[in-house]
Amino acid sequence: MNLSAMRILELIDMKRHTRRIAMVFAGCLMLGLVQPATAGERSAEMAVSVTVMARTLIDTESSPQQLEVSAADVARGYVEVQGATQLVVTNTNRHGYLLSVWPQVQVFSTVMVRNGDSQAELGADGGEIFERRWGQMLSLELDFRFMLAPGVKPGIYPWPVRLQVSPLTF
Questions:
Q1: How far apart are CA 43 and CA 89, in angstroms?
Q2: Is the predicted pLDDT of residue 14 greater than 70, yes or no?
Q3: Bridge-based pairing state of the strands 155-158 and 66-69
Q4: Is the confidence at residue 60, as pLDDT, over 50?
Q5: What does the chain look like in DSSP terms, one character per residue?
Q6: What are the phi and psi torsion angles at 145 (to 5°)?
Q7: Are 144 and 113 spatial neighbours (Cβ–Cβ below 8 Å)?
Q8: 113 with 140: CB under 8 angstroms?
């Protein structure tokens, strides 16, 4: 599309918006000019509708920077970390939200994520946990049990998961 064609489309679009604004202004004037049949108060009603977009975000997060795997953990086959992550989530979607768990370091074959009485077991590729709660300042304290992947040695590893939240869309 050349420049003159784009300019013509802009002028047509501007003309449409100007026409709409003029119609709204004329409607407001008409409301002010209409004289009531009897003396007294004047009133008008106007309906207003607002749509609030769903918003889900982690307000604060406190997670360890590292995961320490001891020889006893390797012999047992897992590492358990109680209260490892504290989250404060804001979710304005009444349907709930998804808590996504993204692996960052391949030290586990599965991970059990617990929050109070609810728990979910996710594979080495992570996954999503459905939360049916909504509101502001939703506190979560997450416990993790990392089932160690074959060949993991004792040592200090970067924290193996990253968390993300998003609104449920269904």
A1: 44
A2: no
A3: antiparallel
A4: yes
A5: --HHHHHHHHHHHHHHHHHHHHHHHHHHHHHHHPPPSSSS-----------PPP-EEEEEEE--SEEEE-HHHHHHTEEEEEEEEEEEEEE--TT-EEEEEEE-S--EEEEEEEETTEEEEEETTBEEEEE---EEEEEEEEEEEEEEPTTPPSEEEE--EEEEEEE---
A6: -125, 110
A7: yes
A8: no
User: Six-digit token pair at 27?
Assistant: 């409607």
Does position 38 have pLDDT exceeding 70, yes or no?
no
pLDDT > 70 fraction of the chain, expressed in percent and rounded: 76
For residue 150, the Cα-to-chain-centroid distance in whole angstroms is 34
pLDDT at 82: 93
* Beta partners for residue 122, in sequence order: 111
Average pLDDT over residues 95-120: 92
The whole-angstrom separation of Cα 64 and Cα 68 is 10
Residue 84 sits at φ, ψ, to 5 deg, of -65, -40
CB atoms within 10 A of CB 76: 11
The one-letter amino acid code at 126 reads G
Q: How far, in Å, CA of 167 to CA of 130, rounded?
A: 10
